[in-house]
Amino acid sequence: MSEPSSVYAAYLGNSYLFGGNAPYVEELYERYLTNPGSVPDNWRAYFDALQNVPAVDGSDARDIPHQPVINAFAERAKQGGTKVVVAAGGASEEGRKLVGVQQLIAAYRNLGTRWADLDPLKRTERPAIPELEPSFYGFTDADLETQFNTSNTYFGREVMPLRELLNALRETYCGTLGAEFMFITDQTQKRWWQQKLESIRSKPNFSAEKKRHILERLTAAEGLERYLHTKYVGQKRFSLEGGESFIAAMDELVQGSGLKGCQEVVIGMAHRGRLNLLVNILGKMPADLFAEFEHKAPESLPAGDVKYHQGFSSDVATAGGPVHLSLAFNPSHLEIVNPVVEGSVRARLDRRGDPRGSQVLPVLVHGDAAFAGQGVNQETFALSQTRGYSTGGTVHVVINNQIGFTTSDPRDLRSTLYCTDIVKGYEVPVLHVNGDDPEAVVLAIQLALEFRMEFAKDVAVDIVCFRKLGHNEQDTPSLTQPLMYKKIAAHPGTRKLYADKLVAQGVLRPEEPEEMVKAYRAAMDAGRHTVDPVLTNFKSKYAVDWSPFLGKKWTDAADTAIPLAEWKRLAERITTLPANITPHPLVKKVYDDRAAMGRGEIAVDWGMGEHMAFASLVSSGYGVRLSGEDSGRGTFSHRHAVIHDQNRERWDEGTYVPLEHVSENQAPFHVIDSILSEEAVLGFEYGYGSADPNTLVIWEAQFGDFANGAQVVIDQFIASGEVKWGRLNGITLMLPHGYEGQGPEHSSARVERFMQLAADTNMQLVQPTTASQIFHVLRRQMLRNLRKPLVIFTPKSLLRAKDAASPISEFTRGGFQTVIGELKPIKAEKVKRVIVCSGKVYYELVKKREEKGADDVAIIRIEQLYPFPHKSFAAELRKYPNATELVWCQDEPQNQGAWFFIQHNIHENMQPGQKLGYSGRAASASPAVGYAHLHQEQQKALVEGAFAKLRGFVLSK
Predict the structure, then answer these.
(1) 564-812 and 822-956 have identical folds
(2) Which residues 6+ apart lie within 8 Å of 263 measured at CB?
(3) ∠619-624-629 over CA atoms, to 5°?
(4) For the Transketolase-like pyrimidine-binding domain, which residue ranges apply (predicted)?
(5) What does pLDDT average to over the chain?
(6) pLDDT in tens, 745-760
(7) Scanning 396, 501, 589, 738, which has the fewest C-beta atoms within 10 Å of its C-beta?
C-alpha cells in the first residue's frame, strides 16, 4: 500500500486513533464506504491512500471490506515505529491489541491527572475513569505479561510487558505530580513534556544536600508564620500555613533562573504568603517587618498602605550570578497586578534589547479562586503572545487552597474542573502537584522554568495545598467548612511530614529537624536575614535612576518649543515616504497636507501636532510607546502613524512607520494596535511606565468612555500609587471626549471621576483645544523632571477643525498654556460677564458671541483642570474689573464633567460682589442622550444659557 507521507504524518500527529477515539475513525470509515464525499477531504484522501485506489467524489458506494482497514491500521502503526509483540493470535487480534495499547498510553497522557494523588487532605475518592483501565480496551489479566513495543514512549525500553507499561504510566501521570499538556497543538512541545516526565516517571532524584535545603526552606516558611502567630496574635498577615511548599518552589525558581541566565525576576502576587516571600525569598529584614506589625514603620508617604500590599526589591546570589528580585506593589483587587508586572518586565526587556525574554523572568502567584474568577487573567493571557506585549513567557504559580474564599461552597467555586482550566485556551501547560510532596513541587518548578526558557511560553504550576487559618487570622473557617477544617486540624504539617521522611531515609539525624526549627527561631529573635546571601552593594548596569524625578515641584518649567530649522527637518523626515510604499489615496492626501504644514503653507492640524511631538521626542532620546485598540490609524482616522502599502501581497509585510525613521540614532517609537482589552492593556502600560521613566508611555482609549473597563487600574494604581507606595509613573492616557450626538457610550471620558480622584498633586488633567497645545503638553510630559500620570481629554470633532489648527509660530515659541484668555482684541472695561469653559464648547461659545454681538462677554479656556492654574486664571480675571458675572459652561450634565470640582477653584479667585452661575445639561443618570435631535436641542440650550440671565444655582462672593 502507498500513500502521501504528508497525509499519514498529519494523521499520526493529530488523530486520536493513537489515543482514545478509534470508534470515531471507524464511524468515519463506514460513512466513507457508503459515500466518500460525506467525510472531510483530509480523511477521504487518507482512506483512498489506505486502499491504494484513486480518490473519488460523489456517492459511488463501493464494496470494500472493513477488516482489512483494521489490519491496515496495525500495519501503519508498525511502519510508524510502533511494533508490537504478541504471544498469539492472527493479524486482526494483533492489530486490535496494538491499537488498544496506543489508546491506553494516550489516555494516561490525557486523563492521568484525574487519578493523581494531589490532595494533601485526601477528601475525595478517585473518580471512575474507564479509559484508564486496561479492560476498557479489551485487555484481560492474561494480557498483563504480554510484551508490547513501546518505542513511542520514553520509559527507556523498546519492549515492555503490559503490566510494567501500566505501572510506568501510573507512576508518571498519577502520582503526586499530574500534568496537562496534550491539548497543546505543537507536537514538539507535547513530545518535550512526554520525554521529560516519562524518562523519570515524574520522580525527582535529589541529592541529600538538596533534600536538606528543601527542608530548611520549609522550616523557614513554617517558622515565620508560627513566630508571627505567637508574637502578633490576631493581626492580619494572610498566613501561608498549609502551603509552605510555596517557599521551596520560589527558592528553586530564583536559583534556577540564575543558572539559566536570568538576571531579574519580577513577581506579582496578592496577599497569601506575601510576608513569607518577603522575608524568606527576597531577604527583607525580619526586624523591618516586625516594625510594621508594631506600627513603628516610617510614615513618609501621604497615605501609605498595609504591609501585605507593599513591594520590595533586593539582589541575591545564585550559582549563575546575581539576580535582582522585584516584588510589585499591589492593591487588594485580586489579580490586577498581573498585567502591571508584565508591563514592567517588557520595559526591562526592551531596555536590555532582549526580545525573547532570556534575561528577565515574570512570575505571577495566584490564588485558586481568583485565578478562575477574575477576568483580567484572561486578558493578560490573551496579551502574552502578541508582538507589543510578549515577555517571553510567564511562570504562574497557584497557591491552591481548594476552597477559594473560606465561605465558598465547593459547588459554587467555579464552572470548571480545575482552577487553571482557563489557560487551556492559550495552550499553557499545567503541572498539578501535591503540596505535601515538596520534592515534587520543586521538580514541577524545575520543569516549568525549563519549558519557559525553551519555548518562551507561559506555564502554570498548581500547588494543591490548604489554608490552615482560614481567609485571614481573624476568620473562623469551621463556621462554614466544618468537614474540611476537621481534616486540617488533624494534619501534622508539611514540614513535619517531610522531616520524618528524611529521617526515615537516613538523610538527617533524628534531632536535626528540631535543630533547624530552633536555629530559625533564633534568627527571628535577632531580626536577622533569612536569605543568604543578600547582596547589599550590587547594582546592575540596567538599573534605572529615578533620583532626577524625586522631590520636583509642579512649577518646574520645561522649554517645549523647538527651533524652526528643527521643525522643518523633522517635518520633512516624517512626511517623506519610500518609493516602494504605495499609500491609500486618502492617506497620501493626509501626508501631502502634512508636508505642506511642515513648510508653513497651511496651519498645523491635530494629527501633525501629535506627530511632531513624537518626532521631536524620539530625536532627543526619549522613547515613545503608544498603544490602544486603534492607535496606528487612530479611532477617528486622524493619525495614520502606520502606512499600509496598498500593493502588498502578504499581510505581515508592506508597512512603513515614518516615526521610526526620524534620526539616525533616535530612541524607539512603538505604536501598537492592542487586543480588545482595556483593563489588562492599561495595567500593562502602567507597569511599563513604572520601570521606564525615559519613555513616553501612552494608552489611548478607543472612546474615552472605554476607560470604564480599566477603572481598577485608574483608581488603585494611577491615581494613588504615589501616595500609597511612593511609586512615580509618567503614564499618559488619551481619552477621546466630546458631546457630538454619539450617544451615552461615545461621548464622555468621565471627567468627573478623574476630578474626584485628583488630590495631593497626584496627576495632571488637561483638555487641550489646539494642535499646538497637544504638541506642547506631550513634550512637557517628558522634558520636565516630573513623572506624574497625565490624563488628556482629547477631542473628536476638533481633530480636523480649522479653528483648532495652529500656525508654526505656536510650535517654535511658547509652551503649554494652562489657561487661554481672549485671543482677539476686546475692550476689557466693557466686559460684564466672563464665561469660563474647557474643551470644544469654547468654539461654539465664540460663534454664538459673534452671532449675538455680545461684546460685553469675555471667554476664558481652562486647558489644565488639575492642578488648577490659580495664578494664570486669576491674572485673566483681573483683566475685567467691571465683570460682575461669571458662568461656567460645559457640555456634560451638571452632576458630571468638571463643574462640581472646579467651582470652588473659580470661587477662590472671584472678586467681592461677583456671582458664579452654571450653564450646561441638567443632571442626568446617563452621560448623554441617545437621540440626535435631543442632543442638538440640549447643546443649543446650554450655549444660549451661557449668555442668558443667571438662574438656578448661583454662587456669590
Answers:
(1) yes
(2) 321, 322, 323, 324, 359, 360, 540, 542
(3) 145
(4) 604-801
(5) 88
(6) 999 999 999 999 999 9
(7) 589
Cell numbers describing residue 336: 490586577
> 459-464 and 395-400 as β-strands: parallel, antiparallel, unpaired?
parallel
Count other C-beta atoms under 10 Å from residue 703's C-beta: 22
pTM attached to this predicted model: 0.88
How far is it, in rounded angstroms, from Cα 161 to Cα 439? 29
H or E element at residue 790:
strand 790-794
pLDDT in tens, 240-258: 999 999 999 999 999 999 9
708: its cell numbers: 470604564
| Residues 820, 526: Cα–Cα separation, whole Å | 62
Q: Which helix (H) or strand (E) holds 311?
A: none
Residue with the three cell numbers 504524518: 9
| 844 vs 724: CA distance, rounded Å | 42
The per-residue pLDDT for range 830-875, each reduced to its tens digit, is 999 999 999 999 999 999 999 999 999 999 999 999 999 999 999 9
CA angle (699 as vertex; 693, 700 as ends), nearest 5:
150
Mean pLDDT of 207-221: 96
Give the long-range contacts of residues 370-375, CB within 8 A, separation 24 or more. 370/270, 370/334, 370/335, 371/335, 371/396, 371/398, 371/419, 371/420, 371/422, 372/413, 372/414, 372/416, 372/419, 372/420, 372/421, 372/422, 373/404, 373/414, 374/334, 374/335, 374/336, 375/679
CB 724 within 8 A of CB 309: yes
- Interval 649-693: pLDDT, tens: 888 888 999 999 999 999 999 999 999 999 999 999 999 999 999
CB atoms within 10 A of CB 898: 27
C-alpha gyration radius of the chain: 34
Neighbours of 556 (CB within 10 A): 9
- 510502533: which residue's cell? 82
Q: Calculate the CA 337 to chain-centre distance.
A: 8
Question: For 429, what's the count of Cα atoms within 13 Å in the CB-facing half-sphere?
Answer: 29
CB of 848 within 8 A of CB of 946?
yes
**236: which 3 cell numbers?**
492580619
User: Rounded CA gap, 678 and 336, in Å?
Assistant: 12
CATH architecture of the domain with residue range 230-297+305-502: 3-Layer(aba) Sandwich (3.40)
Mention every residue, 6+ apart, whose C-beta is less than 8 A from residue 844. Answer: 939, 943
Q: For residues 101 and 95, what is the distance between their CA atoms, to the nearest angstrom?
A: 10
Domain 822-956: CATH class, spelled out: alpha beta
What would the grid cell of residue 947 be? 449668555
Q: What is the DSSP string of 250-293?
A: HHHHHHHHHHTT--EEEEEE-STTHHHHHHHTS---HHHHHHHH
Tally of residues, the chain: 957
d(CA 95, CA 72): 8
Buried b (16+ CB within 10 A) or exposed e, 164-175: bbbebbbbbbbb
HSE (CB half, 13 Å, CA atoms) of 242? 27
Local structure of residue 714 (DSSP, 8 states):
I
- How far from chain centre, in Å, is Cα 118? 29
208, 211, 499, 500, 597 from 505: Cα distances, Å:
10, 11, 10, 9, 81
Q: Which CATH number is 564-812 given?
A: 3.40.50.12470
Phi, psi of 179 (to 5 degrees): -125, 140
Bridge partner list, 366:
398
Q: How far apart are CA 931 and CA 726, in angstroms?
A: 46
For the chain, what are the domain ranges? 230-297+305-502, 564-812, 822-956
Q: Residue 258 has which C-alpha cell? A: 540564575
Q: How far is CA 246 from the centre of its chain?
A: 23
